[in-house]
């Protein structure tokens, strides 16, 4: 496969002929850090001081045809003790572009990201350029996509998409690598056919999707799916409907006894549809899987409770068992509320192509500092090119390209009024690794409070909790708690100063991994 990153260069070609606004935003962050680390298992304690330099260059280009953003960040750490071993340098790159034609009916996107992160999701708050930097892995992802969506077709509508991407990870040779590095290419595509706005007594929605993941250390995985729903009006808003789905997956090996997993489901029922697009449908279905047939009652709900509230819920059966989905969204002037549950079949590489939904937080490109993020009005908010979307679960997956069944639930609350803003998230996930017969349960919570003491000063309190429990297979249980208090002061339009204190505690049943870390940081930021 040719490197998908070539698409990034192609996307920039319109710069030659299309005028637009080009901006550069250089920033220099300088941090002085003093920290103390304790290891309860061995009673070891170490004190150290570090100087961290983080020059950042952010560039954006915006025109009617093309929007693009590039962010390059270099991190250099110099420590006063054991400098030969602890001094580190990293460079992260984030590129994002969108190019639209025909009133954005035809859309091309290209992304390229190079980041450094912990191999295990639960270590994402522990391993950083200062603490346990040797455990950071280099992650390179390149993706490109093309999509077409018609605008209000009269009688027949058709949309389609195609995506391609690659994922590469390289772990530090000195790290205790739990898994083989990822070296995979992913492809996906799909098409939908639906009725136009002039057809009112009948509707249809037929979808076909294809996904392929080529893995270097494991067999390729191919997934195909077809689903359809067709309805005919019989009484006012009441419709007679027929539904069906066919899922097929090839190439699954390892702990599974079979390479192919497939299922079929079809049925009929009634659906109540409103002109606003809200509907509630109930169907009686026959389900076929592994040569067995069962019957079940399924439902599909999508309802606007008010102009500011909506609920979506559904139930059916698939090859991995019962498939429930639920989402509740509510917005007011000050509050944002998201509650959801979903279950899906995916891999790390496929998640890079389609991060997931709904979007819960939108942050500046390349940043995961919750104090700089906001909750959008809609879970379908489309981030700008210089923004990063964070979807649920926020808990990061392991850096392994195994096929997983991911079951997750979340509660998300946001408040922003006058001087006080608040963000809270709790997520619960069950991860089943099909090829190594492992299962884990993860729970994570984040709370951020920001209070404006004045026009130039704000106080930020942040807390995080995460826990990983092994349900099946050989692994270890781990719990991480951290607290951070920061005082930010704007010295001028270009200069900011931040003083922060952080405490982190990791408790685990694996020898020599428990630790406590206390860190005092003074950060000066200058925008050129």
TrEMBL record:
Alphabetized Gene3D superfamilies for the sequence: Porin
InterPro entries per the UniProt record, alphabetical: CHP03016_PEP-CTERM, Porin_dom_sf
The protein, known as: TIGR03016 family PEP-CTERM system-associated outer membrane protein
Organism (species): Bowmanella pacifica
């Amino acid at each position: 496969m040719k490197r998908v990153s070539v698409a990034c260069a192609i996307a920039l070609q319109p710069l030659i002929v299309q005028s637009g606004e080009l901006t550069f935003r250089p920033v220099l962050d300088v941090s002085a850090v003093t920290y103390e680390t304790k290891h309860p298992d061995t009673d070891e304690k170490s004190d150290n001081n570090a100087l961290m330099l983080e020059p950042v260059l952010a560039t954006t280009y915006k025109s009617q045809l093309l929007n693009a953003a590039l962010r390059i960040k270099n991190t250099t750490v110099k420590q006063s003790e054991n400098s030969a071993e602890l001094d580190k340098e990293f460079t992260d790159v984030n590129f994002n572009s969108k190019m639209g034609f025909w009133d954005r009916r035809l859309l091309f996107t290209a992304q390229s990201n190079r980041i450094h992160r912990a191999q295990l999701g639960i270590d994402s708050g522990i391993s950083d350029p200062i603490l346990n930097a040797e455990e950071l892995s280099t992650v390179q992802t390149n993706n490109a996509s093309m999509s077409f969506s018609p605008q209000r077709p009269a009688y027949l509508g058709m949309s389609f998409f195609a995506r391609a991407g690659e994922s590469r990870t390289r772990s530090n040779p000195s790290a205790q690598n739990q898994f083989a590095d990822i070296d995979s290419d992913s492809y996906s595509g799909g098409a939908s056919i639906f009725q136009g706005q002039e057809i009112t007594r009948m509707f249809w929605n037929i979808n076909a999707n294809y996904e392929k993941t080529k893995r270097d250390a494991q067999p390729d995985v191919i997934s195909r799916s077809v689903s359809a729903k067709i309805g005919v009006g019989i009484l006012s808003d009441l419709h007679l409907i027929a539904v069906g789905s066919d899922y097929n997956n090839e190439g699954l090996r390892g702990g599974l006894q079979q390479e192919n997993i497939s299922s079929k489901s079809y049925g009929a029922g009634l659906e109540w549809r409103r002109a606003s697009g809200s509907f509630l449908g109930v169907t009686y279905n026959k389900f076929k899987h592994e040569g067995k047939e069962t019957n079940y009652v399924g439902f599909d709900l999508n309802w606007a409770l008010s102009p500011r509230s909506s609920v979506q819920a559904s139930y059916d059966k698939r090859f991995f068992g019962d498939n429930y989905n639920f989402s509740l969204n509510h917005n007011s002037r000050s509050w944002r509320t998201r509650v959801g549950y979903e279950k899906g079949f995916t891999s790390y590489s496929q998640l890079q192509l389609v991060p997931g939904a709904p979007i819960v937080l939108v942050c500046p490109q390349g940043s995961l500092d919750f104090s700089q993020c906001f909750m959008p009005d809609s879970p379908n908010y489309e981030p700008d090119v210089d923004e990063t979307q964070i979807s649920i679960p926020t808990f990061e997956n392991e850096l392994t390209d195994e096929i997983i069944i991911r079951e997750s639930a979340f509660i998300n609350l946001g408040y922003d009024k006058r001087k006080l803003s608040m963000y809270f998230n709790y997520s619960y996930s069950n991860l089943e690794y099909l090829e190594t017969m492992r299962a884990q349960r993860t729970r994570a919570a984040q709370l951020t409070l920001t209070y404006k003491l004045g026009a130039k000063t704000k106080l930020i309190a942040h807390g995080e909790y995460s826990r990983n429990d092994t349900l099946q297979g050989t692994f270890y249980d781990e719990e991480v708690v951290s607290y951070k208090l920061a005082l930010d002061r704007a010295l001028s339009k270009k200069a900011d100063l931040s003083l922060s204190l952080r405490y982190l505690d990791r408790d685990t049943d694996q020898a020599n991994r428990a630790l406590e870390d206390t860190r005092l940081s003074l950060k000066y930021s200058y925008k050129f």
